[in-house]
Amino acid sequence: MATLYERGGAPRILLIDDNRGDARLIELAFKKSGLPAQITVAENAEDGMTMLRGTAGRPDLVFLDLNLPSMHGLKFLEIVKGDPGLSAIPVVVLSSSSAQKDVTDSYNRHANGFVTKPFNLDGYEIFAGSVCAYWFKLVQMPLARA
Questions:
Q1: Which helix (H) or strand (E) holds 61?
Q2: Domains identified in the chain, total number
Q3: Domain residues for 69?
């Protein structure tokens, strides 16, 4: 086992969020922080699922908004965490909600974390640094990168 930084290469993040403004803030935060990450954005859960099951390489981490068109984020979590081929991919819910029901429902569906969206770029920079430090520098991940 090795951290993603020890393995080399930029971590791959799949961001599933239909709010282009929030997606842009996340991309800017990672860029401004100098944190090497390849961020791919899916604007709905169905596209996110297609990307997870595609051949372009699996992400190392998924950021998931809950309130998405068509398929809700909680349904996406159920599918991903119920699929033995995908369940090891960490999924962090990134939601504008801080309602206890959303937090509980997310963890009950095996989310690996729940973060309320920051309000500005500075908040997103703190988020980017914290998430990367934890998931990419501290946590041990399986060696295989499809």
A1: strand 61-64
A2: 1
A3: 4-47+58-137
